[in-house]
Amino acid sequence: MTTGTAPLTHHHYWQGAFIDDEEAGRRLAALPATVEAALAGPLETETVLAACERLAAALRDPAHPTRARLAEHLADGEDTSVLTELAAFLGRPELTRKLRRELGGTTPQRLTRPDARETVYEAWAPVGLVAHIAPGNAATVAPLSLVEGLLAGNVNVLKTSSADTLLAQHLLAELAALDPTGAIAERVIVLRFSSSRQDWLRLMCAPADAVAVWGGEAAVEGVAAHVPPGCRLVEWGHKISFAYLTPDAWHDGRTLTALAADVCLHEQQACSSPQVVYLDTEDEKEVFAFAERFAGVLAAMPPAVRQEEPGPAEEAELTTTELVARLEQHLGLTRVITAPDGSWRVMADTRSALTASPLHRSVWVKPLPRKRALATLRPMRRYLQTAGIAGSRTDVAELSRLVLAAGATRVTPLGAMLDGYCGEPHDGVYALQRYSRRVAVQADERFATTACLDDLTLPVSFPAPDGPLLDKAAVQELNAGVDPRDAELYFRSGGSTGAPALSLFSYDDYDTQMHAAARGLLAAGYDPARDRTANLFYCGGMYGGFISFFSILERLGGVQMPMAAGPDHRVTAEMIVAHEVDTLFGMPSYLWQLLHEQADLLRSYGGIRKIFYGGEHFTEEQRRTLTETFGIEVVRSITYGSTDLGPLGYQCTESAGGVHHLHADLHTLEILETDADRPVAPGETGRLVFTTHARRGQNLGRYVIGDLGRALPGPCPCGNRSPRFELLGRGGDVMRVASYFLNYRRFVAIAEQDCGHRGELQVALSRSSVRERLTVRAEDTGTDPQQLRAAFLAGYEELRSAVGDGLLDLDVETVDGAALERTPTSGKLRTVVDARR
């Protein structure tokens, strides 16, 4: 892709290369085939967001070579603030907010279930080809319009004026060059030609599915002639804005100063600049008195910083408008106050009809009692945009409804008429929706556990991560630098793998993660239309388990009893029976205690069919007990995740044990060797390293989460194409004891396989004056501790050697499950308790 200086005759950028007129004409003739080829490949929204964020960072840096290259293409009289303005729009926070507001999320093109209780999938799909006809002398409009088309997934062809510089071409070339996939370049064509070149305009519009045109009525009509039947015409035409003041407001000096600021900013060249000031009165004397007072305020405003002299046509309009208004003074209809140097003019008019201003600090002042506002303004509804209202709180509320009914599309305070906010609709519509189609797929019961239809065909793919590896301490250091605006939600980790730490989220990030976890729960077999759920995760102390699964069920529309884990198991069991709960959410250790302590009541009830667990694992023997003793049909992981990163993986109906699918729309997974920072061989066990995408204000890349696992090759029988991996314990499960490395999971496997142990297991490490001691605490489920000890020594060679060499004392004891040590916030079993000093 070309980002360097193009030859002087190469005014057009076409899918990664600068070309001349002859080549552009040849390619325009084949535009339909070009569009079809480009649409055949995917364009992930994240691809666009990542490239835009890189370009925004370059534009914000005064010393960056990209900024320097683009500055060469600014028009005469324009300074680099234009590039800063572009950077503000292209930043990830602004674009993600725009996507959420306009299309409902940051992956709008994925076919997901708007109602999880139905197998109906909806998405926003690109319309196909969007032709953008940009206005002249508006440096930011052209490229930003095309970026909106990219966000919606379209192929885009942009026409800039023949009088414009090549800023749009080079800016979009830089953007395309920052996309390693090449998908952006495939969807970007930028042509520079005069509107008189009707043959090119016709070729550009003929295959379009939407045509976006910026300009006045003449410009729109000229383009509309080339728009084919069925093609969507998106008009971004010229608009008129006005101010409306109540009596209290127009006597307030601060209000008049704010109004004058709106008039002078950009010299009324913006559609949102006030051209008319309406007063809520029928008294002509008040109109003339206000005009005199406002003229004094306008005269005190500083002159334009970069005032451009009006052209001949504009000068003629200014002169004619003022002359006619002065002539009507003799009839008592008007009064004109003008600056001695002609730099501003206030024209009071006793007639209420909306009249366009000749701009350049020229303002009409007219009476308009609110009882006549609708009838006066509605005939001009096609042209109305912003109403700046000044009055009491009640006035603002009442008048807002009135002017919106008349046709205005936005209401602001005075002094803020030209201000906007990220994601604001433009002229009453959302641009991304105009460049998209809402599509739906109805499916049958075979898709009950398919949350996203795209998972069956094409997994999300992100560029390979780079940069340094991060551990928990490094992430905590990064948290200290998070902008407070991005730290809206604080969660505290359970502390089962170390000291509790805080994790920070924006509400947008949290919402994205909860929706992803909800989709994973559907894949695991949760049925929101039928299941009645008791949420029995722990709550309190800023621990997020209970809150998160409450949020997940809320998004699924599932029936839930938010009980939370509590010490009174009898009360919990009685609630389960009373409310006919058939599905339990919770930690394995807590659910195990609850079921066994209240076995008689819950077995006689017999209504529990499903268990979804998180944070720990049930052993195979425990699963067998749940099935055979309690009649539970489904025992499956509710999610695999962490407090820092959120949901990482999910099980499907074909998954068992520690096997999970990756939440590939949120994360990239690497598996690195345990003793070196390089990928493991295919199928080998290593450290799980996750890179999280699109976290607002945080860059959680290459996070070594502390878990071990391996990638699973081949497709999953469920049909989901998302990558699979198998959890194989935590790095902390490996203990350095008496010069040997021992693994907690080996103890669990031996106890289960050789002795049929069905309870929990905990390893405690201590040190005496003579040697180290390893104590295995086994939950008392009838297993003989001596039999367990013998099995450990027989089945674990390293343990046998350590004990035989006199380096380690081995004890095995059975205890009540409630006596095992657990983390206080989450209730997780502490698998290894190391008391050595």
UniProtKB/TrEMBL annotation:
Pfam families: AMP-binding (PF00501), LuxC (PF05893). Its EC number is 1.2.1.50. One of its GO terms (molecular function) is acyl-CoA dehydrogenase activity. Transmembrane segments: none annotated. One of its GO terms (biological process) is bioluminescence. The keyword Phosphoprotein does not apply. It is an enzyme of class 1 (oxidoreductase). It catalyses: a long-chain fatty aldehyde + NADP(+) + CoA = a long-chain fatty acyl-CoA + NADPH + H(+). Pathway: Lipid metabolism; fatty acid reduction for biolumincescence. Keywords: Luminescence, NADP, Oxidoreductase. Residues 478-691 form the AMP-dependent synthetase/ligase domain. PANTHER family: BLR5969 PROTEIN. LuxC is the fatty acid reductase enzyme responsible for synthesis of the aldehyde substrate for the luminescent reaction catalyzed by luciferase. Belongs to the LuxC family. This is long-chain-fatty-acyl-CoA reductase. It comes from Streptomyces cinnamoneus (Streptoverticillium cinnamoneum). The lineage of its organism: Bacteria, Bacillati, Actinomycetota, Actinomycetes, Kitasatosporales.
